[in-house]
Structure formats: structure tokens, C-alpha cells
Design goal:
Helix content is 44%, strand content 14%. It is α+β, with helices and mostly antiparallel strands. The strands form 4 sheets. Strands 1, 2, 3, 4, 5 and 8 form a 6-stranded mixed β-sheet that branches.
Length: 517
């Protein structure tokens, strides 16, 4: 197969096919060659799954059924479109013929289209540009979105400063039912949040969302094959629709939403011109009020309003909303550490994954409430997000039998172990654990201290801990040195500590303790 698609693209093809789109129309909508769409539709038809079943499969399973390692390389089509741009500028010259330009195109192209395809592509691109023909929009098919060029403002209560805010506008082209919302910026998070609010305002989902190549929606703009950013694509997958940036061959698309923006200036901006707002929430409450008036106005040449047209005609064509609203996802890459955790940089915390993935490169998908870990499109771990910095978030099922033992470590765990060897050992363990900010370090030192009983016995360990406590030297290394140099057996050492309350400075090397003997 010359061109391969990722699982998200495959689901968009299936969705549009189920919505009644022809293969040619699917290709034009998604910027994919018709032959590629035809090839995948044949593959779908001979698979063991129905189309609706394929939509329910996760990305990993879909990738195995229809493996892909690259996105479309449509350089042949782009070359043709660039040539058409030059060709169209020559249309008014006397003696112009398409055959002449086709022969010129063949002479300079490495992989030219046939003459029939050449003409078909040209007619498809330029058929609607001539004249001012009004486009008819099918109900429930598309939603046009854009940000207004003129901003509104809120006032900072502390400084009195005017803070500019963006205004998002959406319109259904069939009924002209409009949605308007103020937001902090045009960034990806704000755009997706506005689109989510828009769909819930309409109470249903259109087949496609048409944007104006916004930077927050498109990673790489192209007249023929724009690259939609991952988060916006995931948003479209959640709501079972597709993202389709404004088409270069249909300038009416952009004119429609720009007209909605101009009407928003007249019907929403202007009535609020003398009002002051101190938060976006206040501003949006007033926008909602003015928007209600605007959508209820009767069209000058129709006996109905935008709201009435929407409710009587367009609403029934919308697809139902999913059970849950979309929660914005962000992404990070992380390698699974030797201890079986991935590092989550936004919160500086750690999340466990199954130990068999140690050393593997993974992708983290995270929202405000969840952290998901993916390996090759397959989710291998799901955690509730913990905002505490430095936290270790563990699912015990992810750990091997060896790791599970360490997952039980806690201050109480070590106190119980230390209690088997004497109360002074317990006191030393408690001091060691509380002396460090990072608990795992204290746990390792406490375990080392308790393990000394194997070499010296419980009684000697307890005596050594007693002497270390009296000298304010309750550390693993100093207690080990006391035992190694037999200082726990020295009555002189003990008497000196008891009677004179002599303390060993923390920087003193206790190995040179022969002076005490």
C-alpha cells in the first residue's frame, strides 16, 4: 500500500462513510487521495469486523489489523495543485487551451496524472470560484468556528488595568444558529474548551468542524493536506466527528463565519459597549444573554429565527453527544525506569507500570484527573492523577514479586521489624526515617540498620543503638562503627557518656575510638 494512515485517520474515514459520504467526498474532506480511501474501504470490507465494530476497537488493535508507520505523502497531488495555480493565472490569455498546459505539466512532472484525472482535479478545485453562487449547506453536516478579530476586555480589580480577552464564534451554516464565548487566549486548551462548550450548547454533534487553519488547531498549514494537532484530533474522535480546516478552493466557507463575527459585533459587542466586567465569567453571562436575543431575532426575509430554524430543521440531523464531556489531554514521553515507574514531569511525580515494560519508551496521556501510560497505542497503565510533588503512585498488580515486598515499606513497617531487636533499635529507626526528606532513602538506611543483627546479634545491636542515641549519633554508619569497634561492650565508653554527658560531634570519626578504651 503506497499511503498508510494512523488509527485516528482510519476511524475518521469509517465515521464519514457511515454518515453517507462517498469515497471521493471522504478524500476531499480529509485531504486524502481517493485511491487511498478506496484501498482502505476494501480492506475494511474483507476484515472480520463490521464498520461499527471497527470504530469501537482501541488504536492498538486497529493498528495491528491495518498496520501503519507513516502518514500520507501526497506530494504528487500537491505538485498538481501548485501547477494549477500558475495555469489559472493564464486563463485569460488569447489561445489558451488545457491540452497545451497538460503537455507542459507532463514534461516537468516525474509522475504525472492522466489527462482525464488532470481535468477532473481542476474542475473540482475551481468549479465554485467563478461568480458569487450561494452555497447550499446540508443540515447537521458542518460547524464553522473562528476567533473574532476585535477583542473584548475585563478589568483587573486591583490595578484597574484593561485585560484583553479573545472571543470565539461558531455558526451552523444551515440555520445560522450561533454560539459566542469569551476566553483567555487562542491557545489549544482554550480552543478545545470552547468547541466542547459549543457542542453541548447545540446538544449534538455535526459531522465536521471547519476551522480557519488556526495555530491552536493545525500544526502544519497546507492548502491540500493540513496536519491537525493531536489533542484536537483526539477531541474529534471523542465526539465522533472530523476536523476540516477551511478549504482553499471554497472561500465562501470563511466568508460565512466572518459574517457571523460581524453580526456578533453588531448584536453582542455594541449593546455591551458601556458595561464593565471584572471576570470572564461575568462577561460570558452577559454574552449569553445578548446571544439569546440575537438567536431569537426573526430573519428579515423569513418568518422564523435562527433558534426556530435550528430546532425545526437542523437539530434532528445532529449526532448524539457522548455520555461524558471531553477532558483535554496533553502528552509527554517517558522511559520506564528500572524500579518500574515513569517520571511525570508536570507534577514531578512517578507512576507505576507493569514491570515487563522496564526500559521501554512510553507516551503519557494526561488530563486534570487521570494519567494514562501507552506503549505502541496500547494503554498499559491508568492512574488517578496525584498533584503532590515527588509522590510515588503504585498499582501493586504492576510489580513483580520482588517489587511487591518493597511496596509495603512504611515507617510502621520498619518500627515493627525493629521492635524484634529492642526499643533502642526502634528509636534509632524512627530518627533515621524522619531525618530525610525523601522517605525511600530513610527506608533503605533503616533496613541496613536492622540487618546488622545478623552479624552482631539483637542484644549488641540494641546496646549500640542506646549508645548512639545518648551521643546524638543515631545514623546507620555510626552504629555500624560502634559495633565494628566493639564500643557497645566498653563500660568506660558507656560510663563517660552517662556521667559526663559527653556527646560525639557529628563530624567525629568514631573509628578512632581507642582513646575511650
Amino acid at each position: 500500500m503506497a499511503n498508510t494512515l494512523d488509527p485516528m485517520d482510519l476511524k475518521q474515514i469509517i465515521s464519514l462513510h457511515l454518515d453517507g459520504f462517498s469515497n471521493r467526498k471522504i478524500g476531499a474532506t480529509l485531504g486524502i487521495s481517493r485511491n487511498t480511501v478506496n484501498t482502505y474501504m476494501r480492506l475494511f470490507s474483507v476484515s472480520d469486523y463490521a464498520l461499527k465494530e471497527l470504530l469501537t476497537l482501541d488504536n492498538a488493535t486497529l493498528d495491528k489489523l491495518f498496520p501503519s508507520h507513516s502518514t500520507i505523502d501526497n506530494s504528487r497531488y500537491q505538485e498538481l495543485m501548485l501547477y494549477f495555480k500558475e495555469l489559472n493565472q493564464a486563463r485569460n490569455y488569447p489561445g489558451f487551451t488545457f491540452l497545451y498546459h497538460y503537455q507542459e505539466y507532463v514534461s516537468q512532472s516525474k509522475n504525472p496524472y492522466g489527462y482525464t484525472q488532470f481535468m477532473e482535479h481542476y474542475r473540482r478545485k475551481y468549479a465554485k470560484i467563478k461568480g458569487s453562487m450561494k452555497l447550499e449547506h446540508d443540515p447537521g453536516k458542518e460547524l464553522f468556528i473562528d476567533f473574532a478579530g476585535k477583542k473584548l476586555h475585563i478589568i483587573d480589580k486591583q490595578t484597574g488595568e484593561l485585560i484583553p480577552v479573545e472571543v470565539f464564534v461558531a455558526i451552523l451554516p444551515n440555520s445560522h444558529y450561533t454560539y459566542v464565548e469569551a476566553c483567555k487566549s487562542q491557545k489549544r486548551d482554550e480552543l478545545i474548551n470552547c468547541c466542547r462548550n459549543t457542542l453541548h450548547f447545540y446538544g449534538g454533534v455535526q459531522k465536521a468542524i471547519v476551522s480557519d487553519n488556526l495555530k491552536s488547531a493545525v500544526n502544519r498549514a497546507s492548502r491540500y493536506e493540513p496536519e491537525i494537532n493531536r489533542s484536537f484530533k483526539d477531541f474529534a474522535r471523542h465526539y465522533n466527528c472530523v476536523i476540516n480546516p477551511t478549504r482553499g478552493y471554497a472561500p465562501q466557507d470563511k466568508a460565512l463565519v466572518e459574517n457571523a463575527v460581524n453580526l456578533a459585533y453588531q448584536r453582542i459587542y455594541y449593546p455591551m459597549r458601556k458595561m464593565s466586567f471584572f471576570s470572564i465569567e461575568e462577561l460570558n453571562r452577559e454574552i449569553k444573554k445578548q446571544l439569546g436575543h440575537y438567536n431569537n431575532l426573526l430573519f428579515s426575509r423569513k418568518e422564523s429565527s435562527r433558534r426556530e430554524l435550528f430546532q425545526s430543521v437542523e437539530q434532528q440531523y445532529l449526532k448524539p453527544l457522548p455520555e461524558t464531556a471531553y477532558e483535554l489531554k496533553s502528552y509527554r514521553r517517558a522511559k520506564v525506569q528500572k524500579i518500574g515507574y515513569v517520571y511525570f514531569s508536570p507534577d514531578k511525580s512517578y507512576y507505576s507500570v507493569p514491570y515487563r515494560y522496564i526500559g521501554k519508551e512510553t507516551t503519557l496521556h494526561y488530563t486534570r484527573s487521570l494519567v494514562e501510560v501507552y506503549y505502541h497505542y496500547q494503554r498499559i497503565a491508568l492512574h488517578q492523577r496525584n498533584p503532590s510533588k515527588g509522590s510515588y503512585n503504585t498499582n501493586k498488580e504492576h510489580l513483580s514479586s520482588t517489587h511487591k515486598y518493597y511496596s509495603d515499606w512504611s515507617p510502621e513497617f520498619f518500627k515493627k521489624k525493629a521492635a524484634l531487636h529492642g526499643k533502642h533499635v526502634v528509636d534509632c529507626v524512627e530518627k533515621i526515617i524522619t531525618a530525610v526528606d525523601y522517605p525511600e532513602i530513610g527506608y533503605k538506611r533503616a533496613m541496613g540498620l536492622i540487618q546488622l543483627h545478623k552479624s552482631y546479634g539483637s542484644q549488641r545491636l540494641d546496646n549500640a543503638c542506646k549508645r548512639a542515641l545518648q551521643a546524638d549519633a543515631a545514623t546507620y554508619q555510626r552504629i555500624k562503627n560502634i559495633l565494628k569497634n566493639n564500643l557497645d561492650k566498653s563500660s568506660l565508653f558507656y560510663q563517660d557518656l552517662e556521667e559526663n554527658k559527653t556527646h560525639i560531634p557529628k563530624h567525629t570519626n568514631i573509628r578512632g575510638a581507642s582513646a575511650y578504651q
